[in-house]
């Protein structure tokens, strides 16, 4: 992807098979080798379905710098992978930030006259517009100063020894990619899986998202004791049942 100093290689794993298949869209700082992504790939192998995964630039096995990442950049990469490898209608499975990417992909595919390539969507603890809706209202004075003076801020991560990095460019670009501003026409069924003990993306955010989706196309499953990752064996079983039901 890109050219010159912006060139970066995107790592892709594509299991060939029948369609509708599944396309994995990971979260912020996660990769395609995670528990849920691997479980989907194993399911696809047993079902003879296509399974398409990739790492955004700055993530996992892909090239590029993480600090250069924005929603627009990762969306562009996801659309390019989809265009290159998807062989028929697909179920987009977006986790956390991947849910935002999935919704933007749906908009861009419909705009390009390719809405028929979307069979359905599964959004796991979806975090669309998280920079505007979830983070901006909680920024401290020190964090605002970091963004203004250094161009990025750091935040302790519960999932890694290294802090999370959020750049000013990510916040500014996030404003251009907001989806929770009007009706989100996906043109396909959407199933949301949301833990009610999620400390990162409150379940109320998923409920708010549902208000912007066509009522007849949306199903939501709330997991009362579910966390953000939803990677326990029972959560994985629910994800696979959901995908099978949509196929």
Q: What is the distance, rounded to the nearest whole angstrom, between the alpha carbons of the first and last residues?
A: 31 Å
Helix content: 25-40%
Q: Overall 3D geometry?
A: globular
Under CATH, the topology can be stated as Rossmann fold
Q: For the record, what CATH class applies?
A: Alpha Beta
Output the radius of gyration. Answer: 17 Å
Question: Major β-sheet, in short?
Answer: 7 strands, mixed
Number of domains as seen in the coordinates: 1
Concise account of the structure shown:
The chain has 247 residues and is of the alpha/beta class.
Describe this structure in words.
There is one protein chain. With 247 residues, this protein is an alpha/beta fold. The chain has one domain: 3-Layer(aba) Sandwich (Rossmann fold). Helix content is 36%, strand content 21%. The mean pLDDT is 96.
List the helices and strands and how they pair.
Layout: E1 12-15, E2 18-25, H1 35-47, E3 49-54, H2 71-85, E4 90-95, H3 97-111, E5 118-124, H4 130-135, H5 141-149, E6 152-155, E7 164-167, H6 168-176, E8 189-195, H7 203-211, E9 218-223, H8 233-246
Parallel strand pairs: 2-3, 2-4, 4-5, 5-8, 8-9
Antiparallel strand pairs: 1-3, 6-7
Helix pairs in contact: 2-3
Notable features of this structure?
single chain, alpha/beta, Rossmann fold, seven-stranded mixed sheet, two-stranded antiparallel ribbon, 8 helices, 9 strands
């Amino acid at each position: 992807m890109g050219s010159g100093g912006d060139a970066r290689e995107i790592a892709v794993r594509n299991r060939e098979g029948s369609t509708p298949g599944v396309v994995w869209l990971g979260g912020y700082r996660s990769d395609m080798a995670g528990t849920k992504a691997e479980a989907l790939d194993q399911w696809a192998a047993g079902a003879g379905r296509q399974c398409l995964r990739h790492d955004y630039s700055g993530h996992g096995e892909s090239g590029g710098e993480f600090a250069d990442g924005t929603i627009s950049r990762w969306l562009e990469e996801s659309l390019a992978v989809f265009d290159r490898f998807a062989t028929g209608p697909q179920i987009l499975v977006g986790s956390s930030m991947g849910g935002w990417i999935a919704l933007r992909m749906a908009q861009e595919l419909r705009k390009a006259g390719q809405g028929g390539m979307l069979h359905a969507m599964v959004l796991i603890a979806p975090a669309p517009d998280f920079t505007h809706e979830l983070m901006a209202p909680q920024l401290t004075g020190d964090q605002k100063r970091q963004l203004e003076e250094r161009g990025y801020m750091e935040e302790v991560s519960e999932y890694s020894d290294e802090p999370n990095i959020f750049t000013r460019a990510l916040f500014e670009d996030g404003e251009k990619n907001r989806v929770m501003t009007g009706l989100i026409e996906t043109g396909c069924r959407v199933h949301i899986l949301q833990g009610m003990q999620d400390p990162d993306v409150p379940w109320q955010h998923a409920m708010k998202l549902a208000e912007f989706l066509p009522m007849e196309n949306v199903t939501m499953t709330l997991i009362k004791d579910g966390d953000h990752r939803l990677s326990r064996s029972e959560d994985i079983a629910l994800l696979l049942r959901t995908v099978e039901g949509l196929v």
